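Contributing new records

If you add data, match the layout below exactly. Sequence lines come first and carry their own label; structure lines follow with theirs. Keep one chain per record. Anything else will be rejected by the validation script.
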Amino acid sequence: MGTKKLGILFIFSVLVAFFAGYFIEQVIPVSNTNNGINSISSLTQIFQNYYYYDITDAQTQDAFVASMEATIKAYGEANNDPYTRLVANSLSVAPNGDESFIGIGVSFVMENLDLRITYVYPQGAAVDKLYPNDLVTGIVVDNSPLYFSTLSSETEVMSYLSGALDETKTLIVLDPDGNENQVDITYKEILTPTAYSLTMPYADLSYIKITKFSGYVADVTPGTSQVFSEVLNTLESNSLMTDPSTKTLIIDLRDNPGGALTALHNSNQSGLIPGIIQQLFTYNVEKPVFEMIPRVGDTRTFYGSLSTAKPYQIVGLVNGHSASAAEVLASALSSYGGYALYGTNTYGKGVYQNTINLLDLNNMRYSLVYTEGEWFYGDNQNVMTDPLTVNQIEQTGIHALEMPVYGGEVQTDEVSTYLGSYQAFFNYYYGLNTMNSLRTDGYFDAATQSIIETFQTEQGLTVNGILDRETANAINDLYMARMNDIQYDNQLQDLMTLLES
């Protein structure tokens, strides 16, 4: 089950990093599947005629969806293709915008019908109320507990969790120590911009972060190309176009899994503003910025739109989680624009996906996301075999650490699979070097106890030398604060220092 974001109207499935977004935003009309039942009708008929147990309509439908998912998975695995998959979206709710959502502000995975918290959005309604690895098992309705395990489906669970702005709900939460608590959370708007700028410590540097590429949906979301355009226009008005030969724009594509093609290029579709590639690069009829070659159909070529190049310098910042459409933009910066890339090598996703709607069943729309073809940059190059040239700047510090996730109390002489991430955090936090650093293998030794006691004393916590929930929550708060403060982003700081020198 993929990670999910809790919003006002619907919970969207979100897969890990580079599997998340499909590259091309084009939906082929629904194919005629006759509800798909014919493909398993013979087997189902046998069960209905001879099986000891009664077969309900719901079981038949569930079996069909399972067989469809298994078929798609088998084809994907046979071709080492992790991007082809079956997706399901509810038809009973309106689409949710990518730039913000109204909810409690968490990501989660479903465990049966419970919600395992994986991430808490900074500035969200759940901050200081929920933490990673908490399990939301129910909700209080009319002053009585309603446990999700008593419900029939994920859709029913989400119907109870959907909420409006300023609405307060009481969640039933089981923490990693096994304690059940009731937590009141008031729903709020959580901003999740797909493109934004940050104030730089140097006057000649500007910065735009692109988290993913979202397409325009009328009355729902403006799309990343629109958001990027607004941010870029503001930066150009305030700084970049004033003595532009001395200015540099940093475009940060780190951890960007890709997304909608229309955010990069509008493909001359009416009603869409120019994509980011059209906003940044010049038009050259003899040199496309990139090409897409499907197995069936014609090659699609994409060009820039500017008559003259931007008068300021541009650099890209990438890492191993920059994939798909993020790599298309990175390749355009490097190969077409002649701009330097910094950071670490990109993921290398040289294929793109398309979507076919399969059928609507039980108020759900099932769609096939499948790999359609390859994309190329430069002189017929593909990032799978021709990696982008990146000037290496390794990430260090807090951003190089795995987020510590609490799994229950640990104390002296115990071994824990998750303790090692806390030991690594203490090594970073206290600047412990090779000579005096803690072990990070998850064994709770005397040195680990001593450093926890020191931390508990400094933070005004109960000093017991145990990694308990109170201590773990304090570490999580520090971790999240530093992860969202650019002064602790060593890779970005090193790039700025390099550019200034």
